[in-house]
Structure formats: structure tokens, C-alpha cells
Amino acid sequence: xxxxxxxxxxxxxxxxxxxxxxxxxxxxxxxxxxxxxxxxxxxxxxxxxxxxxxxxxxxxxxxxxxxxxxxxxxxxxxxxxxxxxxxxxxxxxxxxxxxxxxxxxxxxxxxxxxxxxxxxxxxxxxxxxxxxxxxxxxxxxxxxxxxxxxxxxxxxxxxxxxxxxxxxxxxxxxxxxxxxxxxxxxxxxxxxxxxxxxxxxxxxxxxxxxxxxxxxxxxxxxxxxxxxxxxxxxxxxxxxxxxxxxxxxxxxxxxxxxxxxxxxxxxxxxxxxxxxxxxxxxxxx
Length: 285
Fold this sequence. Notes:
Blueprint: E1 13-15, E2 38-41, E3 48-51, E4 56-60, E5 73-77, E6 92-93, E7 96-101, H1 108-114, E8 127-131, H2 137-146, E9 151-156, H3 159-169, E10 175-179, E11 195-200, H4 207-218, E12 219-230, H5 231-234, H6 240-253, E13 256-263, E14 271-278
Parallel strand pairs: 1-13, 8-9, 8-11, 9-10, 11-12
Antiparallel strand pairs: 2-3, 3-4, 4-7, 5-7, 6-7, 12-14, 13-14
Helix pairs in contact: 4-6
């Protein structure tokens, strides 16, 4: 069995503390960028930090000139960008490269990164199954990360949000929008292939079951997963910590190796992100 990142007692590491309300917290959460900015690679491949008056989490814009949800864009001279040598999704705009500020108050994945998660398994070239895509705010940043050689299968059930998702995907050919019910993964088997990573952000009482059945259909052995848990959707009467523990136990029983647990406060209250590696249980003969 793989080693888990734990802090005593054999429990997954739990980071992040209680904080204030949602809003414009300075720093990586989504503050203003200084005009002259230096871009440096984040420790997560395909993600960057804009160094200026304040540090901002950013992704390299796959559709230069386009803003998906009103996020700030930063143009940097090619010579000033300290790019990761493994980055292949570089799209110059004249003599500049454009980055998009990734606001942790608008994205649970960004919040988990700002709060110190060790691995999200999403990187350039990865194939990602994204459950609960909504209108595509976070999906667009995942699209930036995986680049032209990657693909994002974005599942969304709501037709209203799905329309926004489809329109956004028109400018991002690596996104395949699928308007379907994530509880019924067999319905998109003709469109979705095997993936390297599953990201799940489905606010339903059976959140764990949804990621499990999708992993059984589409996640390769040893593939990574990022699971956003909203405690109130599962049991509003129980303590969030107890809900998180029950969800983790359900994952483990289905062959998920949980490595981390990170709280999302102050960006989201009573939310946690759980990450790890999936390997189906061997069938007994």
C-alpha cells in the first residue's frame, strides 16, 4: 500500500483553518495584480504565480484575449516569463504571454491549492474527467493547465449551466462538454474515454457514490482523484468532520487510496477536498 501523508493517528492530513466570509481577501485568493509582473512556475506543474505587489495564482490562457468569468488577465513580455520547461501550452499574444488570475473564492480547486494541497494530479497533457462542471469557471482553468495535448471531459446536468459551458468550450478545443447526469456514467460512454484524473464537485447527498461509479467506468488504475466534499449536502445535522470521515471511509472501501484532506476555509465553509490515487479492488475468485 502506498504511504499516506498523515499527521499522527493514521488519519489524512487536515489543513486550513476557520476564517472570515467570502470576499476580496488579498494574496492568492484573487487580488489586483501590479502592472509589471513576473510569472514563476508554481510547484504544481502547469500552474503559475504572478509575483508583484501581491502574489496571484494564475494559469496560462489557452484562449488569449478571452475572459471566462470576468477574471483579470495579465500580459507578460515573453522574455520576462520564467516558464516551467515542461510547459507546452504556451500561446504568445504578439510579444506577450497572457495569464488568467485564478480566484480561490470562485474555485474549490484553486482554494485547495492555495490552502496547501500536495498534489492535484492535473498537469499538462492529462486527460481529466470533471464532474459538476457548472458553467465552466474552474473547467476553464483546468483547460489552461492540461493544454493542447490534454483533454477535459466536462459533465454537467443542468441545461442552463450547460449552455454556458458549451459556449465557453467553443474557444477551447480541449474541452468536451457533456450535458448528462453524473449518476449515470454509462450514458456518456460513447464520448468519454479513460482518464488520468477525476475531479468531482457534485453537491449531492451521494457525492462519494458518484465519484466511485465514474472511477469504475473511466479512471485508469493508479489514476489520481480530487474530491470536493460539501458536508451540508450530505448531512446538515452532523459535524462536518464526521461527514468527511464517513465519505473517506466509503472511498477506501471502493479501492481509493486517500492521501490528503484539506479544508477550504475561508474560501468555502464546511467544505473539504480529499485527494489520492485510485486502484480497483481485486475481484475475489
